[in-house]
Amino acid sequence: MDAESDWNFPHQFDYIHSRFLFVGWKDWAKYFKQAYAALKPGGYLELQELGNPFVSLDPSLTPGTQAWNSNVFLAFSKTGKDLNAWKDFPALLKAAGFLPDSIKQTTERWPSNEKAARNEKERSMVADSMRNFIEVVQNMNPMLYGKVLGWSEEASKAGLRKTMKELKEVGGHIPV
């Protein structure tokens, strides 16, 4: 089933979780309405999305990473996907039927590499998130830079190499 299709489950759920849908989702209002209808009374919807554009709590966001982020933001906007949709989540959730006092939005600081990690928990987060991030970037970069922005394959690869090198070498944090 395509998650953006109409949901026709024969039962309701206690808990619905989604994570990092921001790169593929267009109609958040529909998603929240369908999630609300698919939840049992008292059920939970949990969302985990990256904040965009990436920001740094310290001066560690490098020029290459800033440029990559700006280009990705531009490319996704050209495909009709809003990487800042998370800012509208509280209003969209209320419109879908969720009670205002049940909506909680928090921002967590995720280190982008081991130099930025402060403890073992953050080092574990780094390993998992960097593995995931690198895989996502390597797979979506050719499509976004080549097909959407019209970059050559070599220019796309060069930008990707610079960004990956900077992410691995400089300590930074990504808001989630």
Structural overview:
This protein has 176 residues and is α+β, with helices and mostly antiparallel strands. The chain is 46% helix and 13% strand. Helix 1 crosses helix 3, helix 2 packs across helix 4 and helix 4 packs antiparallel against helix 5. The two termini are 27 Å apart.
The number of helical segments is 5
Poorly predicted ranges? none
Structural class, from helix and strand content? Answer: alpha+beta
Order of strands in the sheet with most strands: 1-2
The count of strands amounts to 4
Helicity range: 40-55%
What's the short story on this structure?
The chain is an alpha+beta fold. Helix content is 46%, strand content 13%.
Helices and strands in order, then pairings?
Layout: E1 13-19, H1 28-38, E2 39-48, H2 63-78, H3 89-96, E3 109-111, H4 120-148, H5 153-169, E4 173-175
Parallel strand pairs: 1-2
Antiparallel strand pairs: 3-4
